[in-house]
Amino acid sequence: xxxxxxxxxxxxxxxxxxxxxxxxxxxxxxxxxxxxxxxxxxxxxxxxxxxxxxxxxxxxxxxxxxxxxxxxxxxxxxxxxxxxxxxxxxxxxxxxxxxxxxxxxxxxxxxxxxxxxxxxxxxxxxxxxxxxxxxxxxxxxxxxxxxxxxxxxxxxxxxxxxxxxxxxxxxxxxxxxxxxxxxxxxxxxxxxxxxxxxxxxxxxxxxxxxxxxxxxxxxxxxxxxxxxxxxxxxxxxxxxxxxxxxxxxxxxxxxxxxxxxx
Length: 262
Known about the structure:
Largest sheet: 2 strands, antiparallel
Number of domains: 1
Radius of gyration: 19 Å
Distance between the termini: 32 Å
Helix content: over 70%
Number of helices: 11
Low-confidence stretches: 1-7
Number of strands: 2
Structural class: mainly alpha
């Protein structure tokens, strides 16, 4: 047993190898990866912060420019987490190297840790870049910074895990982008990313509560301003439930070999 592997048989060397490989791929396009969220954030502030913000001074006592920051971060985190998580496992399937991965001395947990850990790291870095860029446009005060960072990591890990599942399910590059672009992004825009759901008429507010993204954005906004559209405890419990549901799905995939061995 190597020095990188502990007495209980956890292959930390293998996990680190996957993690390092995925992060190296990210670093090769670091300039593009960093420039994109900076430009996108700036455009959001120009369009939403200036155009709409000039007509809507405050939302719930928070200046509109500052109010949209948590929504902007979540919009990027959800999409990037799923994209990074799905591409990481889909590429070995596409090139045929998935069989080398399956025959390696790695447990399903170790494989997921490597891929999802790297995808989570990349998404959190992008989220913090957006947060830093936002401070150039508005004054931000984070009421609960520890909760904010912890919830950011939990959300990124949850959607990276979902992306990992999509990467296993997908049979083409088009299918990789189907769920993030046609499901998650619209739900994020409709989930209060740029407005409070309390501004909606009664019936539409009720309908919106069936959108799971509402709870994620609401909890993240609470970390900044101490206010949320729905109960923060419910929001965090639902996010944790999504995470464990993803773990259960991955466990079933490796147990059955669904779209891994054929």
